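Researcher: I'd like a candidate sequence for this fold, 194 residues long. If you have to choose between options at a position, lean toward the conservative one.
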């Protein structure tokens, strides 16, 4: 090599300095942490929305069927599932059981109910999600766990009970208030924590 080539080669560094390498690795680490937190937050939000959506769709479907068939249906929310089934007339219930709600008056023609096929549907719920219910004019959240179940009656005419459903996972939660006339979501609030 001649002298001119040696001077050019010595004047230009051939690699990165330690400071540049540390800076780039730090930026890559910050980007990876940010992406991980973002993906986790989006995943939690999606789980909460799917869980609340299953309950809300069963209530909405039950309300539509109840209006179409002109008979009461019930949505039962248990620890592992939410189910839809017809609510039977008071005349078919035991006389001594006064804990059951009033559903039909005696002037309902039960022969017209046989024109429709009874609809039964059950959907499994996400076991990672905790479900809580707040009834109308109450400040107490009742957790659905163990043998505890919520039975939501959908009469074919009139209003339904305006309950509020809260689905939570860790510190994140989604709260939906059910509209008493349409059985649709009236109000929604959500908080997603990392």
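Model: Candidate sequence:
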């Amino acid at each position: 090599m001649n002298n001119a080539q040696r001077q050019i080669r010595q004047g230009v560094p051939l690699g990165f300095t330690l400071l540049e390498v540390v800076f780039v690795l730090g930026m890559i680490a910050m980007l990876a942490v940010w992406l991980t937190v973002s993906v986790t937050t989006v995943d939690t939000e999606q789980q909460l929305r799917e869980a609340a959506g299953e309950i809300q769709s069963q209530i909405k479907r039950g309300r539509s069927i109840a209006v179409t068939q002109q008979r009461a249906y019930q949505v039962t929310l248990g620890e592992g599932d939410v189910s839809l089934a017809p609510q039977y007339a008071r005349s078919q219930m035991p006389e001594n059981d006064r804990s059951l709600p009033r559903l039909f008056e005696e002037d309902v023609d039960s022969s017209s109910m046989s024109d429709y096929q009874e609809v039964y549907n059950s959907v499994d719920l996400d076991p990672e999600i905790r479900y809580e219910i707040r009834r109308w004019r109450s400040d107490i959240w009742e957790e659905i766990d163990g043998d505890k179940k919520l039975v939501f009656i959908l009469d074919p005419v009139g209003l339904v009970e305006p309950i509020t459903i809260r689905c939570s996972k860790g510190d994140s939660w989604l709260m939906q208030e059910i509209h008493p006339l349409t059985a649709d979501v009236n109000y929604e609030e959500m908080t997603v924590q990392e």
